[in-house]
Amino acid sequence: MTHPPRTLSGVLIAESLRVGSELSGVPLQVTAIQRIAVGNATADQPEQWTLLDFQAPQDAAGPLAGALANCLAPTGGWYVNYSTATEAFVVFADRVFRYPRGDAKARAEVEEYARSVGVPEPQLDWKD
């Protein structure tokens, strides 16, 4: 019998953080760092992003969501997504969504909110 992983994984875009914010108190392990050119950046987003792939213990999912909601810039259409074995998390400035992975109705509600805060259609590509 295989047990689901007891970690969560996701991607944080460094440029999405509010100036002066600090993400601390949550055990994150950065597993990769990439610098990419973005073809679909909004007017409020830079054309190059620094992607931080991360993992954390699954039991840190809730605290991590709260910490990220306090650190993300409120403008620019930024969010962070990650998932555990059973749940998807999508975090915006001051707003956290969590839903069962694969729940199309819940995802559609998050996508609607994302559009309302300026996330362009091509960036609604998170994985559940």
Descriptive notes:
- The chain is α+β, with helices and mostly antiparallel strands and 128 residues long.
- It has one domain (9-118).
- It has two helices and six strands.
- Strands 2-3-1-4-5-6 form a six-stranded antiparallel beta sheet, sandwiched between helices.
- The radius of gyration is 14 Å and the shape is globular.
- The relative contact order is 0.21.
- The mean pLDDT is 92.
- This is Methyltransferase.
Global geometry: globular
- Strand count: 6
The mean pLDDT is: 92
Give the strand order, joined by hyphens, for the main sheet. 2-3-1-4-5-6
User: How do the helices and strands follow one another from N- to C-terminus?
Assistant: EEEHEEEH
By DSSP (H or I, 4+ residues per run), the number of helices equals 2
How many domains? The number is 1
Q: How would you characterize the largest beta sheet?
A: 6 strands, antiparallel
Strand coverage percent: 25-35%
Structural class: alpha+beta
CA radius of gyration:
14 Å
Helix amount = 10-25%
Cα-to-Cα separation, first versus last residue = 23 Å
Unreliably modeled segments: none
Protein name: Methyltransferase
Indicate the topology.
Layout: E1 7-13, E2 29-37, E3 48-57, H1 61-71, E4 80-83, E5 87-92, E6 95-100, H2 104-116
Antiparallel strand pairs: 1-3, 1-4, 2-3, 4-5, 5-6
Q: Any descriptors?
A:
globular, about 130 residues, Methyltransferase, alpha+beta, 2 helices
Briefly characterize the structure.
This protein has 128 residues and is α+β, with helices and mostly antiparallel strands. The chain has two helices and six strands.
